[in-house]
Specification:
Length: about 140
């Protein structure tokens, strides 16, 4: 009877053990499948991240190239601004010289006008003197 009882308990324990083992095997299979899916998902994500990093690196290189180009353009613009400032300064100097020349011309024109007035006055005096001489000559002749 004890052997039968022991055999029955052994059979029950074996059944429980087989169920536990089957359950464990099922869980292990599930975990392995989940691990494989997670690994595949991580590999996919890693590939996507790698592709993104390659794109970002290419973008960064392009931006770096653009920064170098913009810097070169800025330097050229600064040079052009300096050149234009030089031209402007030269033009301002020429304008100031022209203004001085125009002022001098105006002064000369005023002097010329004064000389013309003096000449006209002298010519009038000379004409008056000639008229007096003529009158005196006429008076002497008579």
């Amino acid at each position: 009877a004890q052997v039968d009882e022991f055999s029955r308990k052994l059979a029950e324990a074996t059944d429980r053990n087989e169920k536990i083992e089957a359950d464990c095997n099922e869980r292990v299979a599930f975990i392995e499948e989940k691990f494989e899916l997670d690994t595949a998902s991580l590999e996919l994500e890693n590939n996507e991240l790698h592709a993104a990093s390659v794109r970002y690196l290419a973008d960064a290189r392009e931006l770096d190239r653009q920064v170098v180009q913009l810097h070169a353009e800025a330097v050229a613009m600064v040079d052009e601004i300096e050149r234009l400032r030089g031209e402007r300064d030269a033009a301002l100097k020429a304008q100031a010289e022209l203004n001085d020349a125009l002022l001098a011309q105006r002064d000369l024109m005023a002097e010329v006008a004064a000389l013309k007035d003096r000449l006209a006055a002298s010519e009038q005096r000379a004409a008056v003197a000639e008229a007096k001489i003529e009158v005196m000559t006429q008076m002497k002749i008579e």
